């Protein structure tokens, strides 16, 4: 992880020093830098949050899948026992009635295990979908933070060169970066 808020703060300090020249253009650019720095810091923090959330949801999905696998294994064990008792009951003999009853008992537990396994798999799919959403937001926020940081750097060039074009370009990059932040949560 990089220190985008720290870098943005340093650019803002440079702009503040330049603003002491009492030039209205430099003051406007300095304000632009400050705004871009705040939005970049927010995007960076949100990016970190979304990245962590993606990992947490993916881990939850793995744990739920383990539980589902356990339930499917329990289902299979019940199925094997049911079939073994059914075969033993069909073979006849003095314990045939007891084997038939055991086969019925194993079949009943099998249905619950299957239902639980399917429920856990649905939960896993939900957790994976949440992880994907957080990952998509993370990527968009990373792009937004990069655009905002580039805008800050270009604003500094505008101060040094006292040219409006770099400032206009920086403000445009900042606007696009802010829009990408918003789109990360709207789509």
Order of helices and strands: HHHH
DSSP helical segment count = 4
Overall pLDDT level: 90
Strand content: under 5%
**CA-based shape:** rod-shaped
Distance between the termini: 25 Å
Main sheet record: none
Number of strands: 0
Q: Poorly predicted ranges (pLDDT <50, ≥5 residues)?
A: none
Count of separate structural domains: 1
Which structural class matches the secondary elements? mainly alpha
Helix content: over 70%
Radius of gyration: 31 Å
Could you outline the blueprint of secondary structure elements for this entry?
Layout: H1 4-19, H2 24-90, H3 96-161, H4 164-186
Helix pairs in contact: 1-2, 1-3, 2-3, 2-4, 3-4
